Amino acid sequence: MADIFSGLEKMGLGNISGGDLFEDPSKKTVNVKSNEPQKKLVLVNEEDYLFDKSYKCPICDSDFQVKTVRTGKVRMKAVDVDLRPDYSEVDQNKYDIIACPECGYAALGRYFTTLTKYQIEDIRSKICMNYKKQKYEEPIYSYDHAKKLYQLALANAVVKKAKNSEKAYICLKTAWVVRGETQRLDPSAADYENKKKENDAQEKELLTNALNGFVMARQSEDFPIAGMDSTTLDYLIAALAYETNQFDIASKMISELLTSRTANSRIKDKARMLKELMAEKKGQQ
Ligand SMILES: [Zn+2]
After folding, report:
1. Ligand 1 centroid distance, CA of 105 (Å)
2. d(CA 269, CA 143)
3. How far is the CA of 24 from the centre of ligand 1 (A)?
4. pLDDT digits (tens, 9 = 90+) for 107-147
5. Dist. CA 180 → ligand 1 center (Å)
6. Please, are residues 106 and 99 in contact by the beta-carbon 8 Å criterion?
């Protein structure tokens, strides 16, 4: 957990660390083999794909603007096994946190305005009172900046006692950002191997946290969970379990999906593909 929150102290939020992220403390750590190195992607004029969208902060009432990707402008190249959209031009996942630059309140768009008065009080006293304003005036988000915003959103989620699914979703999306950065590392750079190793470890920790959070959410929350119906969530849990080498969980979820009467053929096809991938991965170990 230390990793997930390291760096928060620079934003004045060093008090938010330690403890368990989710309500259930049973967490497992896993060792995972690193992926094949991928070719570096070339970004073209990322700025052209962005515009400034205006928001009003529900915590401090400030008006502010956030860099946002123009809808319909970026093409989706592929979807990863864990449903991450992989974009060719701009990594849209970098821009999904809305963060108030004045008070430090941050959340994924889906959750930005849905706050109870108790949550607002908690965020005011535990985030805003300590938050040190960050200056960031670049025309596009660096991966480091995007990761900081996700970290801030996770800190806010912990403080406002968000549902497990919201925290899991933030962990998942942070893992996607880390993966996007890894894809864009320059394999000819001197520190490439180290940086990739660091990123892979960080990504796996985040995926493990996402998996644990979603498993707990599935047991206690009503659907839709983080916008997903039950078969989509079951598929995602299977995929995260596959990615973190928890094959028992993955097998169980896959067979439930394949025998389900409610799962549609698209999800069943994805589950079948995941089953094949898992057989391959097990064979390699
Ligand atoms: Zn604010």
Report:
1. 5
2. 33
3. 30
4. 999 999 999 999 999 999 999 999 999 889 999 999 999 99
5. 28
6. yes
